[in-house]
Design a protein that fits this description.
The strands form 9 sheets. The chain has a 7-stranded mixed β-sheet with strand order 8-7-9-10-23-22-19, with helices on both faces. By secondary structure, it is α+β, with helices and mostly antiparallel strands. It is about 30% helix and about 25% strand. The chain contains 13 helices and 27 strands. It comes from Flagellimonas aurea. Keywords: Membrane, Transmembrane, Transmembrane helix. This is Gliding motility-associated ABC transporter substrate-binding protein GldG.
């Protein structure tokens, strides 16, 4: 027995020594297969910028459903990983409804801050109940606060997929919040005007969202006719140009100014309607309108970069809905109906821009031809396999809602609708007569990027009482789409020099328990977890008593 106790003492001393050393030398070991607790270099870099405390309030404390308990655990472990890189990053667990005398008023206050709750159906012991959970975190630094959504919803996703999607985006979500709080010098975005682009109120939600990252200004190309050099010089002060649904043709002079801006390093996002068709025109025309081509004089510019937007309409069986009223007065009813010219575009998850985003809603979009040339091109959005093209001019009528589509004709799908172009940009006016004289022009430029989307309304938010609603929200069907996340990701990718957005490519797999199996085998595992330790303890006691009795009576 003496040797046995000596061994125990040695083990205790060793554990104490290891713990004393751990106080001075801290390290973590990530033994997970997907390295989910190993932070990426860009995330570590942004976390290490803080020299004063950053407090993260995680609103997932209290009695929450098992699904959210797993999300809570993953969030805490991630924040501990950030804290291991910078001790100024700390977190608190908060139950937003704890000790609330008026829960409804508290919920309303949280919603007014933009913290939308998740309504969860909980089934336990044969009883079903609904609970509100606020899957959010608030990152506080000095006098600034940034909201971080912890729950990532996707259409048709299961509970396991929802948690996996949520955990997968956690590192980027917090790194993105830290970036907003630590930005010292913002890059600039120019909203291009002068060619009938969308009014500011229709792009207000997008601009409000990106204002946390970037400075925003407007450049009007009308002045190109009188002072093109000044317009180019102003443009060059901006890092990215945003062209949102122009409806008037670009002059050759305006096009040359934009060409030089891009060749000299300016990023750009082009949102183009190649077909002139609006839902308002159909309503105003008594239920029908004629779709005709829209000539913006940009074909040669896009062709230079390997893109051709075809003047036809995409007709897709994966559609979003429109709402039509039937009846009169108090008997009016609003019915959601299929609209094949409003595709619901699901992401291929083939790039950090479109990874793990909700379906994007496009309106009267056109397909693009992706041509072979020296530029690298990535298709970010494409129509469903069950889609086709409808030529124009054509009459677009609400009567198509009542017609049964012939599925056999939907055999020309997977049509490109948004394309990322990367490479060393070459001027489309190389070896050509220039439409005007500019100073310090380039025909061969540095590495650059641009995105072309064949739908101008992808950025358009709806209005209610003259005020802009959230981009991607459809007030008529009360549906949310991924337009805002797609465009914000696009902007961040084009202007991100740190590679932070590449975190979105990180794959995480969280195994969840089978709820049905738990219910079926509940009693069995309760006996195993409670009864087995008791039995083992009794057996060990009997064996130890027998061993001592035999040893000391021998």
């Amino acid at each position: 027995m003496g040797k046995f106790f000596v061994s125990i003492v040695k083990v205790i001393v060793l554990v104490v020594v290891i713990n004393l050393l751990a106080r001075f030398v801290y390290t973590r070991f990530d033994l997970t297969e997907d390295k989910r607790y190993t932070l990426s270099e860009p995330a570590v870099a942004v976390a290490q910028k803080f020299e004063t405390p950053v407090i993260v309030d995680v609103l997932l404390d209290g009695n929450i459903p098992a699904e959210f308990a797993k999300l809570k655990t993953e969030t805490i472990q991630l924040l501990e990983s950030f804290g291991s890189k910078n001790s100024n990053i700390k977190y608190n667990l908060v139950d937003p409804l704890e000790d609330s005398e008026n829960p409804q008023e508290t919920v309303a206050q949280l919603q007014s801050l933009g913290l939308q709750p998740a309504n969860v159906t909980v089934e336990e012991n044969g009883k079903v109940s609904n609970e509100l959970v606020f899957p959010w975190a608030m990152v506080n630094y000095n006098d600034q606060t940034v909201k971080v959504p912890l729950l990532k919803n996707k259409l048709g996703s299961s509970a396991e997929d929802r948690i996996n999607n949520s955990v997968q985006q956690l590192e980027y979500a917090f790194a993105d919040a830290f970036t907003k709080l630590s930005i010292e010098e913002k890059k600039s975005i120019a909203v291009i005007k002068g060619n009938g682009e969308l009014d500011d109120i229709y792009i207000a939600d997008y601009l409000t969202t990106i204002r946390d990252y970037y400075n925003i200004g407007a450049i009007t190309l009308d002045s190109v006719a009188s002072n093109p050099q000044n317009v180019l010089n102003q443009l060059k002060n901006f890092d990215l140009a945003l062209i949102a649904k122009p409806t008037e043709a670009f002059t050759d002079q305006e096009k040359y100014v934009m060409d030089q801006y891009m060749v000299q390093g300016g990023k750009s996002i082009w949102m183009i309607d190649q077909v002139n068709m609006e839902m308002d025109s159909i309503y105003a025309g008594g239920g029908e309108a004629i779709a005709v081509p829209r000539d913006l004089n940009l074909k040669d510019l896009f062709f230079k970069y390997g893109i051709r937007i075809n003047p036809v309409l995409v007709n897709d069986l994966y559609f979003t809905q429109i709402v039509l009223a039937s009846g009169e007065g108090n008997d009016s009813q609003y019915n959601p109906l299929p609209w094949f010219y409003y595709p619901m575009v699901f992401s291929q998850n083939n790039h950090p821009i479109n990874t793990n985003i909700e379906a994007v809603r496009l309106q009267f979009t056109s397909p693009m031809d992706v041509l072979e040339n020296d530029y690298e091109k990535t298709i970010l959005l494409q129509s469903s396999p069950l889609s086709k093209t409808d030529g124009i001019p054509r009459v677009v009528s609400l009567d198509m809602i009542n017609q049964q589509p012939d599925q056999e004709t939907y055999n020309n799908g997977n049509l490109p609708l948004a394309v990322l172009i990367e490479g060393s940009f070459t001027s489309m006016y190389k070896n050509r007569v220039k439409p005007l004289k500019l100073q310090n022009t380039l025909e061969e430029g540095p590495e650059n990027k641009m995105i072309v989307i064949s739908d101008g309304d992808v950025i358009k938010n709806q209005l209610r009482n003259g005020r802009p609603l959230e981009l991607g929200y459809d007030k008529w069907t009360n549906s949310f789409y991924g337009n805002k996340e797609f465009l914000v990701n696009s902007t961040n990718y084009l202007l991100d020099n740190t590679g932070l957005i590449n975190i979105r490519n990180k794959k995480v797999s969280i195994p969840l328990l089978d709820v049905k199996k738990i219910a079926a085998q509940k009693t069995k595992w309760q006996l195993v977890n409670i009864g087995l330790p008791v039995v083992l303890t009794l057996l060990f006691g009997l064996f130890f008593g027998y061993y001592r009795k035999r040893k000391f009576t021998a």
